[in-house]
């Protein structure tokens, strides 16, 4: 049995057979076409073109239906244009050089790719086009060769797809009736893959290095897309546990959501707790409402930037933010300034660095890219006129950074003022606490930050010195480590002393295992993926603050993460036995 940890990008639990996506390049027949067969070959190519354009049109239709507010379908419209552009030159070389259509397509695409990659590409635009051309080439070759293996041909309804990465067209081709889930080596929360997986409701985990090497086709695998865990060849006991979880997942999730929706979010002794949602796309705000979120605690804005060819304009961003505010109907919405870098790469914006997690990411990158920063600030400020917006900065490590960022906000405010554009002059400006220096000096940062939100995903990796996407050291990624727990408690205490609201928006916040403990530390605001909120509410409604304090005290007295997890599991099992 092997347990692999990655980034959870689409929730749910599935058990199936590993299906390794065939990444082998198609072999090109180089034979020359007989002169009398030329027109036949041209016709065969034309049939393939029609099939591919039809396929793409269908993908565009499905995407528009699944995500009407979004621009993702434009990528595929671009692919259709590429296909049509290729036609004259490919037909020409079939006729002139008697190439087979396969060879002609491949040769033409390789030539274009070569031209694109030989240029300087500071914006990353050419690199994106290369991905598009390769994707189109694969589709055309698939149509010319006929379906051999691949996603549609080989998956059988029990398959969990394993791939190094999935192209947009492969991901859109995932058919829920054939594919149970997927796991990739690359990709992050903002990758196309992750975004589309959520739209399709397919449990998925990304960012597990070398997973296609570790897994063989036909292996039994468990994918826990909620926790980001993949278990290869599970032992009998684990399989039994996850079978029960898999069976229970949907019905339990639905039952808990129904049961909790109308219940107030308060502890057994009546202390009100804010339950907020983490979202990445505007349309998820509706889901957040459905799960009873009292607001948005973290709106990750990275998704807006995933296509470097179409960086969002101020107007586009403003509209997305306003859409969220409208969905949330007066409830608070915390918009986080762009947080890219490290695992969240955006070609053309993020740099290749030796230590990307310790590099130019989050607020550091925003200072480098003042154009992006100011555009986003203008959009957020303009949106603040339409609801309760809070602005949050990511990856802050010094007081100076907050001062500098606030000075830029003040400048943008003045600019808007001069233009007569309205905004909320009281919009709170706060920070993520996800770097140890910020956590340890939280009391100092509170002199400038109006609120804090603890980002445990990064905080745990920095405290433990464990890269959160490196599977080799995954067991050391321990949110329950005494050092992490002490630090979290000290941040909550610092916020309370400075009378600054403290929330938590890292994954820990949505894990019911930690709910009582965090309440005991004094946390009164939790922000998590919408589907996690009912379980958290169920736990918090079952404990009183004195009980939670006792749990926190007991947990802090334990010497290691394993014992803490064991202790909290025992406590939580009594409240939600279905989860353990
Ligand atoms: C975090 O680090 O906990 C967090 C919420 O930010 P992200 O996961 O987007 O890095
Ligand atoms: Mg973070």
The total count of strands amounts to 16
Strand order of the largest sheet: 1-8-7-3-4-5-6-2
By CATH, the topology of the largest domain is TIM Barrel
Q: Number of domains in the coordinates?
A: 3
What is the beta-strand fraction?
5-15%
Residues in helix, %? 40-55%
Q: What is Rg?
A: 25 Å
Report the principal-axis shape: globular
Tell me the name of the CATH class of the largest domain. Answer: Alpha Beta
What does this structure look like?
This protein has 580 residues and is α/β, with parallel strands linked by helices. It folds into 3 domains: 2-21 and 151-242, Phosphohistidine domain (Glucose Oxidase, domain 1), CATH 3.50.30.10; 35-144, PtsI, HPr-binding domain (Enzyme I, Chain A, domain 2, Orthogonal Bundle); 267-579, Phosphoenolpyruvate-binding domains (TIM Barrel), CATH 3.20.20. It has helices at residues 38-66, 73-97, 101-118, 125-145, 150-154, 168-172, 192-200, 211-214, 236-261, 284-290, 314-328, 363-368, 370-383, 399-419, 436-440, 442-445, 456-464, 482-497, 515-521, 533-542, 545-556, 561-575, and strands at 2-5, 7-10, 13-20, 159-163, 179-184, 204-206, 220-224, 229-232, 274-279, 296-299, 333-336, 389-393, 429-433, 452-454, 502-504, 525-528. The chain is globular. It binds phosphoenolpyruvate and magnesium ion. Phosphoenolpyruvate (PEP) binds at residues 298, 300, 339, 434, 455-458, 505-506.
């Amino acid at each position: 049995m092997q347990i692999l940890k990655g980034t959870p990008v689409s929730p749910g639990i599935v058990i199936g057979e590993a299906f390794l996506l065939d990444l082998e390049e198609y072999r090109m027949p180089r034979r020359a076409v007989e002169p009398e067969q030329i027109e036949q070959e041209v016709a065969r190519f034309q049939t393939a073109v029609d099939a591919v354009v039809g396929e793409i049109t269908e993908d565009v239709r499905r995407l528009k239906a699944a995500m009407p507010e979004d621009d993702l379908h434009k990528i595929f419209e671009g692919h259709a244009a590429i296909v049509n552009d290729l036609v004259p030159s490919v037909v020409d070389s079939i006729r002139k050089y008697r190439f087979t259509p396969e060879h002609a397509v491949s040769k033409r695409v390789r030539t274009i790719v070569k031209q694109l990659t030989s240029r300087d590409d500071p914006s990353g635009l050419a690199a994106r086009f290369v991905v598009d051309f390769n994707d189109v080439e694969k589709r055309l070759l698939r149509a010319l060769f006929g379906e051999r293996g691949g996603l549609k041909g080989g998956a059988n309804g029990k398959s969990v797809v394993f791939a190094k990465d999935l192209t947009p067209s492969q991901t859109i081709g995932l058919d829920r009736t054939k594919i149970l889930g997927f796991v990739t080596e690359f990709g992050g929360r903002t990758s196309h893959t992750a975004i589309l997986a959520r739209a399709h409701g397919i449990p998925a985990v990304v960012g597990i290095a070398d997973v296609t090497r570790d897994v063989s086709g036909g292996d039994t695998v468990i994918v826990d897309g909620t926790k980001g865990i993949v278990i290869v060849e599970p032992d009998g006991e684990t399989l039994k546990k996850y079978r029960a979880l898999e069976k229970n997942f949907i019905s339990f999730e639905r039952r808990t959501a129904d049961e909790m929706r109308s219940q107030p979010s308060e502890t057994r002794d009546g202390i009100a707790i804010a339950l907020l949602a983490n979202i990445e796309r505007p349309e998820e705000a509706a889901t957040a409402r459905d799960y009873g979120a009292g607001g948005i605690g973290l709106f990750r804005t990275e998704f807006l930037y995933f296509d470097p060819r179409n960086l969002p304009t101020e107007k586009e961003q403003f509209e997305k933010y306003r859409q969220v505010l409208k969905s949330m109907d007066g409830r608070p919405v915390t918009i986080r300034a762009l947080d890219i870098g490290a695992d969240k790469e955006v070609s053309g914006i993020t740099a290749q660095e030796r230590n990307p997690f310790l590099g130019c990411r989050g607020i550091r990158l925003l200072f480098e890219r003042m154009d992006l920063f100011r555009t986003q600030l203008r959009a957020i400020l303009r949106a603040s006129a339409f609801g309760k917006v809070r602005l949050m900065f990511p990856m802050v490590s010094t007081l100076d950074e907050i001062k500098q960022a606030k000075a830029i906000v003040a400048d943008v405010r003045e600019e808007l003022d001069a233009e007569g554009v309205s905004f909320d002059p009281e919009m709170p400006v706060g920070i993520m606490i996800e770097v140890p220096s910020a956590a340890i000096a939280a009391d100092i940062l509170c002199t400038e930050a109006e609120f804090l939100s603890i980002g445990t995903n990064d905080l745990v990796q920095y405290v433990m010195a464990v890269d959160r996407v490196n599977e080799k050291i995954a067991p050391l990624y321990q949110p329950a480590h005494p050092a992490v727990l002490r630090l979290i408690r000290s941040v909550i205490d610092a916020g309370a002393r400075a009378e600054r609201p403290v929330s938590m928006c890292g994954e820990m916040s949505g894990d019911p295992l930690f709910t009582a403990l965090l309440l005991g530390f004094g946390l009164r605001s939790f922000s998590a993926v919408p589907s996690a909120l009912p379980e958290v509410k169920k736990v918090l409604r079952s404990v009183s603050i004195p009980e939670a304090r006792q749990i926190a005290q007991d947990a802090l007295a334990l010497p290691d993460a394993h014992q803490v997890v064991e202790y909290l599991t025992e406590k939580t099992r009594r409240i939600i036995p279905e989860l353990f």
